Amino acid sequence: MAATPNRQFKNICVLSRFHYGKHKEFVEAAIDLGRSIAERKLHLVYGGGNRGLSKLVSEVAFVRGSQVLGIIPRALKSLGSFSDSSIGEELVVSDMQERITEMLNHADAFIFLPGDLATLEALITLASWVHLHIHQKPIGLLNVNNFYDGFIAFLNHAIKNYFIPSNAKKNFLLVLTLLMSYLICYKLIDRSQTPGPLCWSVQIMMVTVAAVRSTN
Q1: What's phi and psi for 89, nearest 5 deg?
Q2: Which of 114, 129, 167, 171 could form an SS bridge with 134, CB 3.0 to 4.6 Å?
Q3: Could you give the CA distance from residue 181 to residue 4 in angstroms, rounded to a whole number?
Q4: How many domains does the chain have?
Q5: Is residue 137, in this structure, part of any structural domain at all?
Q6: Residue 183: inside a domain, yes or no?
Q7: For the segment 64-112, what is each residue's pLDDT rounded down to a tens digit?
C-alpha cells in the first residue's frame, strides 16, 4: 500500500491508543472515522494490533471495504497483550522510529485521535519533519472533547517565548468542517507565495467530533 504521489489522497494513517479512553465520545469518534474512511473509498494505515480505538477504526473501515495495513514494532508484537493479529495486513518493524517512517511511506495524510505518549511522539515527529522538509503531508487532529487543547496551548506558549517562530501559527488551522472532506480537497501551499524561513507546506488541522458526526 504505497502512498500516492499526486496528492489525490488514497491512504490515510490514523494514530491513536490501544485503549478506549474515559468517555464514550472517544469510541464514537473512532467508529465514525472508520466509517468515513470507508465511505470515501480510502485505505487505512494504523499502528497495528487489535485493541482500543485503533481496533475500532481499523475494524469498521475493514468490514466496509477499505484495505487496512497495521504497522507494529516487534517489541510490542512480542508482548502478550499485543499478540493478537492486526486487522487486514500487518507489517512488523524493528522499533517505534521505523514505524513512523513506514507510516510516512505508506500514507498520504495523517489523522490523530486522542492517544498516549507514543501518539504524541508520532505527532511531534511528523510535524517536525515537515519543518525539516522531509515530507509535506497534512496532519489532522481530531479534537474529541477538546483533547488536544493542551497541545495547542503549548504551541502558543512556545511561540510567545520565541522557541517557535510566530509565523508557524498559520500552520495550525481550526477547521469546523468534516476533517476527511478537508483532507480530500487539500492542496499544497505554493512556497513561492509564502516566503519566509518557516514556509511549511502543510497545515495541522483541528476539528470537533461534533462536526464529524453531523455528516454521518
Answers
A1: -80, 155
A2: 129
A3: 17
A4: 1
A5: yes
A6: yes
A7: 999 999 998 888 777 655 556 778 888 999 998 999 999 999 998 888 8
In three-state secondary structure terms, 66 is coil
Weakest-pLDDT range from 21-30, 54-63, 146-155, 190-199: 190-199
Q: Quick one: residue 21, left, alpha or beta (phi over 0 = left, psi -120 to 50 = alpha)?
A: left
Whether 3 is covered by a domain: the verdict is no
* DSSP structural state of residue 173: E
The string over 37-62, giving b where at least 16 C-beta atoms fall within 10 Å of a residue's C-beta and e elsewhere, is: bbeeebbbbbbbbbebbbbbbbbbbb
Could you tell me if 127 and 204 are in contact, meaning their C-beta atoms sit under 8 angstroms apart? yes
| Residue 69, all three cell numbers | 495495513
Q: What is the CATH number of the domain that holds 82?
A: 3.40.50.450
Cell numbers given for 127: 510535524
Contact 117, 19 (CB under 8 A): no
6 in a structural domain = no
- Three cell numbers at 54? 485503533
Residue 71: φ, ψ to 5°: -115, 115
- Alpha-carbon distance of 159 to 162, in angstroms, equals 5
* Run of H or E including 210: helix 209-213
Whole-structure pTM value: 0.78
